[in-house]
Structures are given as structure tokens and as C-alpha cells.
């Protein structure tokens, strides 16, 4: 298998961590949709990463689809529970984490536009989404060790990638001081080899 993506995308990082946790071998091809010579649209018409190229040449895109497929490939260390209620709640965590990433990425891209073209109203709307998402994540996590309770799942990976993206692109957001349980979870996650090996960088 081959994974196409960048070292900065939290969605690519999520897929890379799942691949590592599932002990699935793959080749990692660096390519970003913003590169002038990008081949990403050749595999994903939406021009987004990650893209997973399976052994038969079929391409999978959207990180949620990719990680669900990967979890089904190898029964070892299941990251998405089979129980319907728990499964839905883990996927809900993933949706929340990805939503935080969506909003944060929107702010990052808006800041790259020239000053006169930037919309402060748009930036504020996205920043509020990030703040509300973090508050909900902290509230839902409570005093549990992991998002799903005592078991490490895709929920923790997705949230860890979202928090890692904020730490990388928006170090000025003080969620570590204001939401201590998220900070503690993030510290635990960052000690795991798959997280250490995928720390985002330009």
C-alpha cells in the first residue's frame, strides 16, 4: 500500500498513526495539493490528502474512510469498537476532532491571503468553532484516561492529531492551561512512538 500526503496535515497524520498502530507496512509518498506539480488530483478528484493506494491500485480518500478500512484489514489492536453504541461514540469523537481541524485549517489558510482580502468575520467564526470544539472535548473527556474510557481507540488518535495541529500552527491558543484534562491526554499520546514519529513539521 502507498499513502500520499504531507507532514503537516492532521488528517494524514491520523492515517499514519493508525497504520503504525495496526502494524501495516506501507510506502509514504510526500505530495501536497498546494504544490504546483501535485499529483494528488490524479488519485483524488477532490484534490485532498491523505490518499491511500491499495495493492490493487484502488485509491481511497477522506481520512475517515481510510482509517475505517485500515482497522478492518488487520484484526490486531482494533481501534474502532464493534459494539454499535461505542462505535458510534468513537466516530462522533472523530467527527469532533476533524471539525476542529477543519476550522483551524480554514483560519490558517485565511491568514495566508493578503490583508485586504482576509475576512475577520470568517476568521472569528472558525476560531469560535475551535474554542467550542475544545470545550466540548474537555467536557466529554472528563476525568477518563481515554476518550472511550479505559481503552485507547481511534477517538484518542483523532483528538490527539487535532491538538497536535493546534500546537503546531496556533501555539498562541492556550488550551493546555485552560483545559488541563486535554493537556494530560495529549501528553500521554505524545509519548507513544506513532505520535512521536509523525510530529508535524514544514
From TrEMBL:
CDD domains hit by this protein: GST_C_6, GST_N_3
A cellular component term, taken from the record's GO annotations: cytoplasm
InterPro entries referenced in this protein's UniProt entry, alphabetically: Glutathione-S-Trfase_C-like, Glutathione-S-Trfase_C_sf, Glutathione_S-Trfase, Glutathione_S-Trfase_N, GST_Omega/HSP26, Thioredoxin-like_sf
Swiss-Prot/TrEMBL keywords: Transferase
Domain GST C-terminal: 83-202
GST N-terminal domain sequence ranges: 1-78
GO MF term set: transferase activity
Coiled coil, from the record: none
Presence of the UniProt keyword Transferase in the record: yes
Protein name: Glutathione S-transferase
Taxonomy of the source species: Bacteria, Pseudomonadati, Pseudomonadota, Betaproteobacteria, Nitrosomonadales
Amino acid at each position: 500500500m502507498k499513502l500520499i500526503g504531507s507532514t503537516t496535515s492532521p488528517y494524514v497524520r491520523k492515517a499514519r498513526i493508525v497504520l503504525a498502530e495496526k502494524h501495516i507496512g506501507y510506502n509514504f509518498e510526500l505530495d501536497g495539493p498546494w504544490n504546483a506539480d501535485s499529483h494528488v488530483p490524479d488519485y483524488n478528484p477532490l484534490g485532498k490528502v491523505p490518499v491511500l493506494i491499495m495493492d490493487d491500485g484502488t485509491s481511497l480518500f477522506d481520512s475517515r474512510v481510510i482509517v475505517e478500512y485500515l482497522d478492518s484489514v488487520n484484526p490486531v489492536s482494533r481501534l474502532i469498537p464493534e459494539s454499535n453504541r461505542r462505535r458510534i461514540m468513537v466516530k462522533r469523537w472523530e467527527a469532533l476532532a476533524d471539525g476542529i481541524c477543519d476550522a483551524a485549517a480554514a483560519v490558517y489558510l485565511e491568514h495566508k491571503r493578503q490583508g485586504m482580502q482576509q475576512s475577520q468575520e470568517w476568521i472569528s467564526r472558525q476560531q469560535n468553532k475551535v474554542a467550542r470544539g475544545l470545550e466540548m472535548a474537555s467536557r466529554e473527556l472528563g476525568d477518563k484516561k481515554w476518550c472511550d474510557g479505559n481503552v485507547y481507540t481511534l477517538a484518542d488518535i483523532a483528538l490527539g492529531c487535532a491538538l497536535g495541529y493546534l500546537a503546531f500552527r496556533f501555539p498562541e491558543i492556550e488550551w493546555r492551561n485552560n483545559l488541563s484534562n486535554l493537556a494530560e491526554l495529549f501528553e500521554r499520546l505524545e509519548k507513544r512512538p506513532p505520535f512521536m514519529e509523525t510530529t508535524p513539521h514544514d
